[in-house]
Design goal:
This protein is mainly α and about 210 residues long. It folds into two domains: about 60 residues, Arc Repressor Mutant, subunit A (Orthogonal Bundle), CATH 1.10.10; about 140 residues, Tetracycline Repressor, domain 2 (Orthogonal Bundle). It has nine helices and two strands. The termini are far apart.
């Protein structure tokens, strides 16, 4: 049975798309490895070519330049975090919403140590890189903090201060898990730490009601 003229181009297009995806995946994986090894973006296209098997013109064809390559890497990797946030159910209680978001953030970054090191060490022209997906993720956390703050949920903390305190704890928990993965951390340390901090931030102390 012969193929129709419509079916032949479709098969060619499918093969080209599969090859494009394979090339992008190989180039991004090699880029991530080189950035982590050097803790910077100061790798050459030649070293990238040796690692991934694709030439510099091919890399430029898919990503434009090195900045485009790094941006694509971060966007592609962080897409998983956005998907996990989207999968979280929305809570009517702002405190429960904030707790769930903080827990998921710690678990994601602690489970992806290479990505965490990547986004913390890579910059563009001296400025931190922040993929679009991080704006969406961060906005959901900020919205939960804002809602809790507007309902007088925080004790002696304004919205900005509350956000900084929570970020400091989250970053510390992530760093612990990444830098000392074999340490015998207390069971459910993340949950306990977040719950303790949120309780202290939202519940008056014994002498505050006097």
């Amino acid at each position: 049975m012969s193929l129709t003229t419509d079916e032949v181009p479709r098969g060619i297009d499918q093969r080209r798309e599969r090859q494009r995806l394979e090339a992008r995946r190989a180039i991004l994986d090699a880029t991530e490895a080189l950035v982590i090894e050097s803790e910077s973006c100061d790798f050459s296209m030649r070293s990238l070519g040796r690692r991934c098997g694709y030439s510099a013109p091919t890399v430029y064809h898919y990503f434009g330049d090195k900045d485009g390559l790094i941006d694509a890497l971060l966007e592609e990797r962080l897409k998983k975090l956005g998907e996990q946030f989207d999968a979280l159910p929305a809570h009517d209680d702002a405190l429960a919403e904030l707790r769930a978001l903080l827990l998921r953030s710690v678990e994601f970054w602690a489970s992806h140590p290479t990505l965490a090191r990547l986004i913390w060490t890579v910059s563009s022209k001296g400025e931190s890189r922040m993929p679009a997906v991080m704006d969406r993720v961060g906005q959901r956390v900020r919205d939960a903090i804002s809602e809790l703050s507007s309902s007088n949920g925080f004790v002696d903390l304004d919205e900005e201060a509350a956000g900084q305190v929570l970020w400091a704890l989250v970053q510390g928990l992530i760093s612990q898990r990444i830098n000392e993965p074999d340490h015998p951390w207390t069971p459910e340390l993340t949950e306990r730490a977040i719950d303790t901090l949120l309780r202290g931030m939202t519940q008056p102390g014994p002498g505050d009601n006097k």
